[in-house]
Write a structure and sequence with these properties.
The complex is a heterodimer of chains A (about 325) and B (about 350). Chain A has about 325 residues and is of the alpha/beta class. Chain A has twelve helices and twelve strands. Chain B is globular. Chain B starts with a helix and ends with a helix. The chains are: A alpha/beta (about 325), B alpha/beta (about 350). At the A-B interface, helix 7, helix 8 and helix 11 of A face helix 6, helix 7 and helix 8 of B.
Chain lengths: ~325, ~350
């Protein structure tokens, strides 16, 4: 069953300086039990993709084209009442900077119980028990006592565990994790990722893991989709994307991640196009080492290069 | 200074040879020991890497170097002259020579000023240049860091993170510094563009013979930039060595865990799956007795949490604060013999 499907989704944001094309045609399907990593850099549209699925688009954003469905039902991300029924129940989210995502003046257990009450109903006692049980599942130490702690009394890693418990307390079908390890120390990051994967498998939910760090994503996911300037440019098995990337952008990204030597840190020249700019052809053309005449005029479509691997690049498709 | 301090300094430099010498510097904030007894030195034209996670005290130490914090004890010598504890009006003469590039480029520019205005204010305060000379210096430095002249009139919000970090670097270069403290210079930037700033910093060092103290939790940055690397944990230096030794033959369990959690793991056969830390760092551990890593260390024995650890020299220039180092290495050696892989 498809938990979430995005079909050619375009999102436009109206700003004082003009209309920003935040998403320029995103196709994505997440089925039950899938673990999909969405990799991209600032401005690539990865957070906007999560926000469309959750119906949490910024104020002046609209879906200008395309369709989105959750649990095989079409939804409209800007319809607040409809999305309020979906959020928390079918789709839940965890953000980066866990402590800031929590209410500083309520005990963490109470905050989880409130989410349960809102979506599942029941008594406060039931909600509290559900919260404590879920905290136990995310390896939060001594839940009955420590669930009374306030966010400032907990470490960053523990706050992230609270957010995971809060997201999962209503047993959603999809957990969207938006840079869940950013801001945590490297020795803690792996603990949090391992925990998310373990709990997701335990609850048979799907995972959409968004990060700029292709290494972290590949440790948690089966598939990776790489975004650039509002589109997915490569999509395939995590192993293949990380070790044998085909799109020149993915190749550059992987090289800057893995190719550091004693005297050199590889990089991709230039910068990503301004979101206000109208992109004709391929958005990566100005930075691409393989750029051809066609790239400036014709937008490359996603084409399969091998089984379950797709890439949007004229040079690769030749 | 007591002779032990001399032993702790891996370079064993004499006064005058080093551009910067940090001797036994400590800094407390009420009960928290942010920096304890740190000794380090930096030669002219070299880069010293300071590695550690949040709470390790690396930024506190760096802020002591630029007189934003005053150390509680210890000495800081710049070109052999004591600069630690000077009142601001006397430290000011060193401000131009010791510059600080901050982590968040957006936060280090006044959002209401144009880039040109910000740089001009800085030059007015920290250089003796006449207005016309200031203008041409600003243009020259902006060009050197790869920014078009039109950014002079741009506001910080209209530049990307990478462009702003370049502008911040141009500002720092205006005073012709001898030492630049680079505090996480790339952590606000995208993975694919970090190398652009690193390459630029390397070029500028080659051209102007400036020294860097680079603070980073990103080991790739330190691997590429630093001649020597010091690893800090909860205010203490736990290991210091030249770049090659630290990455290929790390001793301390904390260094090994850091390498294991990063993309640098393949450099050393000493780093294994066992090198994983449990739990998290807490402030309480900074005042606990014994080795501060003991509660999280995969190799810890009971005695680790009762005995204080000394920073000792393993081989020339390589110091480690772990009395189990030799045991762990012996275990490694045995394991390698048994399993030639």
């Amino acid at each position: 069953m498809s938990v979430t499907t995005l079909d050619n989704v375009h999102v436009a944001v109206d700003t004082a300086h003009g209309t920003v094309a935040a998403l320029r045609g995103v196709d994505l399907q997440i089925n039950q039990g899938d673990r999909l990593g969405l990799v991209g850099e600032s401005g690539s549209g990865k957070s906007m993709t999560i926000r469309s699925i959750l119906g949490m688009l910024p104020e002046h954003a609209r879906v200008s084209q395309g369709r989105l469905s959750i649990m095989d039902e079409p939804v409209n991300p800007v319809d607040d009442r409809q999305m309020a029924r979906v959020r928390g129940r079918h789709v839940a989210v965890i953000f980066q900077h866990a402590r800031e995502a929590l209410n500083p003046v309520l005990p963490v257990g109470r905050q989880i119980a409130d989410v349960y009450l809102r979506h599942r109903g029941g008594t406060r006692r039931e909600a509290r028990e559900a919260a404590i049980a879920m905290l136990g599942r995310v390896a939060f130490p001594d839940p009955p006592t420590k669930s009374r702690a306030y966010p400032h009394e907990l470490s960053g890693g523990l706050c992230q565990r609270v957010l995971v418990a809060m997201a999962l307390v209503c047993r959603p079908k999809l957990l969207a994790a938006d840079e869940p390890t950013t801001g945590l120390d490297v020795t803690i990051q792996k603990q949090v990722v391992d925990l998310i994967v373990e709990v997701i498998e335990d609850l048979d939910a799907a995972l959409l893991f968004v990060s700029h760090d292709i290494g972290i994503v590949s440790g948690a996911c089966d598939r990776i989709a790489v975004m650039y300037a509002g589109r997915i440019v490569e999509h395939g098995d995590a192993e293949v994307v990380l070790n044998r990337p085909t799109h020149p952008y993915t190749q550059g990204l992987v090289k800057s991640y893995k190719g550091t030597t004693r005297h050199e840190m590889p990089f991709i020249r230039g910068t990503a196009p301004d979101a206000l700019q109208v992109v004709k052809g391929c958005a990566f053309a100005s930075r691409c080492p393989l750029v051809m005449e066609r790239c400036w005029v014709v937008r490359p479509d996603m084409v399969s290069t091998e089984a379950s691997h797709e890439v949007a690049c004229h040079a690769v498709q030749q | 200074m007591p002779s032990s301090s001399r032993l702790l300094d891996p370079d064993g430099l004499q006064n005058g040879e080093a551009l910067l010498q940090i001797e036994g510097v400590s800094k407390r904030f009420s009960t928290l020991r942010a920096v304890s007894d740190v000794t380090l030195s930096l030669r002219e034209g070299e880069t010293l890497g300071l590695v550690g996670e949040s709470g390790s005290g690396k930024t506190t130490l760096a802020l002591c170097l630029v007189n934003i914090y005053k150390a509680d004890t210890g000495r800081i010598l710049f070109r052999g002259k004591e600069v630690q504890g000077l009142p601001e009006h006397r430290f000011r003469r060193y401000r131009g020579a010791i510059q600080y590039l901050f982590q968040d480029p957006m936060g280090s520019f006044n959002p209401f000023y144009s880039i040109g205005h910000s740089l001009n204010e800085y030059a007015k305060l920290n250089t003796d240049l006449a207005p016309k000379e200031r203008r041409s210096r600003i243009e020259a430095e902006l060009e050197r860091v790869g920014l078009p002249a039109r950014v002079i009139t741009s506001k910080p919000t209209s530049l990307s993170g990478g462009q702003l970090q370049r502008a911040a670097l141009a500002r720092v270069l205006l005073t012709e510094p001898e030492l630049i403290i680079l505090d996480e210079p790339t952590s606000a930037l995208d993975m694919s563009t970090r190398g652009q700033i690193i390459t630029l910093l390397q070029e500028i060092q080659a051209e102007r013979h400036v020294s860097y103290l680079i603070i980073s939790h990103d080991l790739r940055v330190v691997r590429t930039m630093a001649n020597r690397v010091a690893v800090m944990y909860l205010g203490e230096i736990v290991e210091a060595a030249d770049n090659e030794t630290l990455f290929t033959a790390p001793h301390h369990p904390y260094t090994r865990a850091l390498l294991n959690a990063s993309e640098m793991r393949h450099l050393s056969s000493r780093v294994t799956d066992r090198d994983v830390l449990h739990g998290e760092v807490t402030e309480m551990q900074s005042v606990a007795k014994g080795c501060k890593l003991a509660p999280r260390c995969p190799y810890a024995l009971k005695s680790c949490s009762t005995q204080d650890q000394e920073l000792v020299s393993v081989v020339g220039g390589h110091t480690v604060r772990c009395w189990r180092t030799t045991d762990i290495s012996a275990v490694d050696g045995a394991a390698r013999k048994a399993d030639p892989q």
